[in-house]
Fold:
Amino acid sequence: GAVVSQHPSRVICKSGTSVKIECRSLDFQATTMFWYRQFPKKSLMLMATSNEGSKATYEQGVEKDKFLINHASLTLSTLTVTSAHPEDSSFYICSASPSGRYEQFFGPGTRLTVL
Amino acid sequence: ILNVEQSPQSLHVQEGDSTNFTCSFPSSNFYALHWYRWETAKSPEALFVMTLNGDEKKKGRISATLNTKEGYSYLYIKGSQPEDSATYLCAFGTQAGTVLIFGKGTTLSVSS
Structure:
């Protein structure tokens, strides 16, 4: 149990386009999902906390108009990188917490490359 | 700024060796300490969640201890196997909720 999927696993796009990444909890409901970004040789950095049915809470320094997060259901959160630029190239990974539990279960991540 | 430090950054051991890593975290506002194993091209896998000072948890050949007063946790692997090769992440949860702050990880390589 507690499987999280993420799609796509890899995406290459042109500068200026938008990219949507989906995060799904497959066998549990997640009131809260988290979006992280990993820079080379760095920790996973929390970008935002996504709550079902409400606006996401963004960490300091993360542009909410750049990284649009939608958590429309208890099993799906999406991250849209708008008007992507090469500096947005990174590894993005989501996690989900089953209601009432401490653990976070991670998706396999999405490698975004912006040309 | 809350900071989680892991050491060593990487290590290489021979099959059968036992090893351990350290995770240091702020001793104030402690909520939970998580350990994850992250193999290449896979999702990080939750190993342990520890919440109480003195907690010890075990899963097969892997175990972990927690000292919340001094702000550290050890992860031990007994009799390392090549399949233990992965990056081991620890993450600190504050009382603010389930937001986790991650260390950079310790990358373990086990050769046969």
Notes: Chain A has a mean pLDDT of 91. Chain A touches chain B through 21 residues (CB under 8 Å).
